[in-house]
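Q: Predict the assembly, please.
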Amino acid sequence: MFHTPDPVRAIALGARVSVSNKLISDMYSELKEDEAIELVKRLYKMGHHTPFEHVSFTFGIENISRSCSHQLVRHRIASFTQKSQRYTRFGTRSLGSSSDKRIEIEDLYVFPPSFQKHPSILTKYRDYLELGRRLYEDLLSKGIPAEDARYILPNSAHTSLVMTMNFRELMHASSLRLCQRAQWEIRSVFEEIKKRVFEVSPFLSEFLCPKCEITGYCNEEKSCGRKPKKES
Amino acid sequence: MFHTPDPVRAIALGARVSVSNKLISDMYSELKEDEAIELVKRLYKMGHHTPFEHVSFTFGIENISRSCSHQLVRHRIASFTQKSQRYTRFGTRSLGSSSDKRIEIEDLYVFPPSFQKHPSILTKYRDYLELGRRLYEDLLSKGIPAEDARYILPNSAHTSLVMTMNFRELMHASSLRLCQRAQWEIRSVFEEIKKRVFEVSPFLSEFLCPKCEITGYCNEEKSCGRKPKKES
Amino acid sequence: MFHTPDPVRAIALGARVSVSNKLISDMYSELKEDEAIELVKRLYKMGHHTPFEHVSFTFGIENISRSCSHQLVRHRIASFTQKSQRYTRFGTRSLGSSSDKRIEIEDLYVFPPSFQKHPSILTKYRDYLELGRRLYEDLLSKGIPAEDARYILPNSAHTSLVMTMNFRELMHASSLRLCQRAQWEIRSVFEEIKKRVFEVSPFLSEFLCPKCEITGYCNEEKSCGRKPKKES
Amino acid sequence: MFHTPDPVRAIALGARVSVSNKLISDMYSELKEDEAIELVKRLYKMGHHTPFEHVSFTFGIENISRSCSHQLVRHRIASFTQKSQRYTRFGTRSLGSSSDKRIEIEDLYVFPPSFQKHPSILTKYRDYLELGRRLYEDLLSKGIPAEDARYILPNSAHTSLVMTMNFRELMHASSLRLCQRAQWEIRSVFEEIKKRVFEVSPFLSEFLCPKCEITGYCNEEKSCGRKPKKES
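A: Predicted assembly structure:
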C-alpha cells in the first residue's frame, strides 16, 4: 500500500555512510540510481544486510485464513494490525452498511484447493460452515459476547491485516515462505508481496526468493528437487 | 518450567554494573539477597527496566484455544514453539499410543464459561464440534493433508506451546493481560504465570500486575472501576 | 531525510483495520485527514501503540560524539548504519577530495558547553586533541591499521549515522531523551528530530515529549521540577 | 555467569512440542540427554532455529575497550547493562575503596597488540594516556560533570558490561565475530564466550563457529583462505 520513497537509493545511502567521510545530505543528493543498484548488489553479496532495514513496505492483506495469519504474525520483526474477532462481528462485510446483498459462504471462508477435487467434501464443508454460521448468530442472539462466539469460527474464516516489514525481514521471510515446502496459502501471500514489490522496483523484487536460491542447496527433509541436498 | 537461576540477584547485578567500578564477579559474590531486593525496588521505581531482561522464564502452556495462542504470540519480544496443526494430527492425545481410551470432546476443545449458562447452546456446540471432528477424520481418510484438514478446526481447538519471556516483557505483557478488560482466557494464562513466578520468587511476582496498578489510572474505554479514569 | 508517506493516515488505517469489516483499500481511500487525526488521538489515549509502528522516519545524524552515538544505538528497535572507524580514516572530511582547505579541530570533535566557561580548560582540551591527532597520523604512518589507531580517538570525535525508527519507538525514545535529566547532547539530537517531524506533521510532533508529560509525574531521582514526584 | 539450566534438553523440548501430542511436562521428563542431542542436531541442520531461543546465557565482560563495547551493543537481540561513564568516575577501581594501591595505566586502557611492536609508539601512547588522565582529573576538579569529562576518554578506556543473549543470537553473533576478518578484540570476546559455553556444554559450544563453517564458503572481500570464495 505504501513504502519508503526511493527505496534503492535509501538502502545504498545506509551503506555508503559507513565508509565515506562526506556529509550525509551530499552523499544522498549525489547518489545516482545505477550506482545505488551496484552498491546494493555488493552489500547483499557480502552479507551486509543492515542497510536493507532503512526501507519498509506496508501491505494490506485481505481475506486470508486465520491459519495463515497465525503463521504470518510469527514473524516478529514486523508490525501487524489485524481485524479483531473481539471487536468486529464476523460475517458482515460492512457493519451498518445499507447493502442488503446476501453474503455468500465463499465470501467468508477460505476453500483449500485440495478440497476442490472432492465434490462430497465440498458439500460437507459447506454444510459445516453453514451450521457454524447459524450457531455463531445464535450465540450472539443469546447475548454471548463476540469474543466468546468466535471460539466456534474455523481456521478458514477470513481475516484481514495491515503488515509493515522492513526489507531485510521481507528477504528473510520470503526465503522461508517462497520455499515449495511452505504451506500453500502463506506462499501465495508472499508471491503476491513479491509482485507488489516488483511494481515498485523490479530490481529489489529479485531479492525475494526461496532460501535454496541463496544458499545453493536444500535443507528440507522432503526436498522439491529444485536444488541438491547439502551433504553433511 | 525453568528460569534463570537466582533471578533477583541476577537483576540486581545487571543494575549494579552500571554504577560500580568493582569487578563483576566480586559484585555478584558480595551481593546479598536483601540488598538485591532493595536495589530491584529502586530500579523499578525509577523506570530502569533493562536489568530485568537478564532473567528469563520458560513456561509450558497446555490446552489453550487457538484464539488464545494467536493473542499470545503477538508479544514479539518472546520465543514460542507451538504444537503444529500441520505436523500433528488433531484429536489424538498421543500418536502411536497404545491407549485405546476414548478421547472426549472436553479433552480437545475449550468451553467458554459464557456457554455454560445455556444448556441449549452447550448441546449445539457439542454437536457442531462432533460434526467437525468427523469431518476432519473424513478429510484425512480422503487423503487431504493435515495442513489443509486443519482449516475446519475451530478457534476453540486445543493447542500447546512452550514460551520463553524475559522478565521485563513478562511485566509488560502482564500489565496488559491481567487487566479486567483483557479477554478471559489469556487473563487466566497470565494469572497462572503469576502463580508460577510466585513459587520461584514471591517478591518478583508482585511486579506482574495490571497497568492501572502501575500508572494509578485506567485508560480503557470501558473501565472496570478499579482505578479512576485519567482526566485528559 | 525520508519517511513513510502520509503518516497520519497510515497510522489511522492501521487502527481502523482492527475494528472494521470494510476492504482495506476502501478504508484507506475513504479516510479523511481530520478523521485520521481524531482516531490517532484516541488510539494514543487508550495506549494502543501498535498502529504507530506502520510509520517510519529516517534521519541523517551528523557530527555527534561517539558518546552520543553509543547511547543512541542502545535503542534496539531501530536500524542504524554508522560511519566506521575501521573503514574510514579519521580527520579527513572527504577522502580523495581535491579541497586542500585545512580541517580545524572544531570540525572534528564535539566541544561540550561546560568546557566553554573555562578558557584554561579549552586550551588544554585543544592541546590534548592536537596531540591525539598527530599520534593518530603517526600510528597510520607506522603501518598500524585504522581499526587499531582509532583506539586513541576520544569519545568527542565526530561520527555520523543514518537512523531509521518507527514512530512508536520514536515516541518511546523521545520520552526518555527529551527529559531534562537526559544527557545534553542526545537531548539536542531528539530536539532536532522533533523539529524535523514537525516539518512533516505538526500534529505528530506533539507525541514526541518527555515521559513526565505522558504520566503526569517525575520518576527521576533528581527532578527538574517540571512535574511533581510520584508519591509511592 | 549463569544460564538456563539443562540447556540441551530445554532446546529439544522446544522442538518436540511442535510435533508431539503428549503433555509438555511428560515430554520433558521423558526426554533423555542423548535423544536431546540427536534432536538438536537435526533441528540445526534443517534450519529450525527458534527452539534455540529457549536458552539464554549471561556473561560478565570486563575491561574491554569502548570500541569493542560499541560493536557488541549493536547486536540488538540481546540485553546489556554497561558501566556508565556518566555515573562512575573513570580511573578508580572501586569508588570509596580503602585500597591506596596506585592504579597503573595498563589497568585502565586496552593496549592493541599492533602497538606492542613499536616501542616508540608505546611510549607516545602512554604519554597521551597520562596526559588525558590528568586532564580528566583536572576537569572534575574544576566542577565539570563526569558526563562531560568523559568526552576526552579514548576508545581504549576500559568498560565492563553484563550481557544476556539467547542461544540462537549467540550462534548468529558468533558466526560474524569468530570470522578471521572480525576485529581482533571482539573476536577474542567471542572466543572467550565459546570457552564458557564449552564448560557448560561441549556439545552446544560447537554451534558457535564462523559463518564460513556453516555455509561452506567465504563472502568476505578479503578472505583468510579458510574456505573458498563463493562463485557468483
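Chain B touches chain A through 39 residues (CB under 8 Å). The longest strand of chain B covers residues 56-65.
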